[in-house]
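**Discrete fold encoding**
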Amino acid sequence: MTCFMNFFTFIFKVVTLPLQLMEVVGIYGFYKRFFPFLIYKISFTYNKKMNDKKKDLFSNLSEFTKGNGPLRILEIGCGSGANFEFYPSGCKVVCTDPNPHFEKYLQKSLAVNDHLTFERFVVASGEDMGAVKDDSVDVVVCTLVLCSVNNIPRTLQEAHRILRPGGALYFLEHVVADPSSWTYFFQHVLQPIWYYFGDGCEVVRATWKHLETAGFSELKLRHIEAPLNFMIKPHIIGYAVK
């Protein structure tokens, strides 16, 4: 089956050669302007299908508030702000994303989520958030982000650096399926095309392995089957305490 999978993966890599060329010459960059609009529209469907999962995940956010001050949240790869509705009232939020074109849609989400205080939007990759100070937030949120960062361990190191001692990293990520499944087969075969239409998204990552070795003192992680397209049905959900 592995040879069969590798053969079809190669075929799809050949099919994406025009897209690879567009990326090399810079034409693919225009898609990054359209991608935020696409994600903004998709986020409504995703939130509807994953509503119960997100509510459960974020239900104990307030427990990580330090003292009498507001809960301080940093969201990595905030996109269009699809998580805002699940944050507790009065929290302060800093958002980062490497794509500056998301800010327009972020403002749309803020307009209907006035229960939180938005502090700033930082254009930065998950691997390099030097604009955010060490030990400066109570919670870091990372949902559907580790699938597309260039370096997962480095991104988790940055999250760990920014969290105060006792703070928590919350995550919700689609991951690679069980190797014995047909989902695993199609994830690998279709990955070359998925990468370009998902703006660098990879569905073949075993992200949980990186979380397990990221140096957090406590890790609460579950594997779930999300009610979504078979390519992104396998998910991990949970949080890690610094």
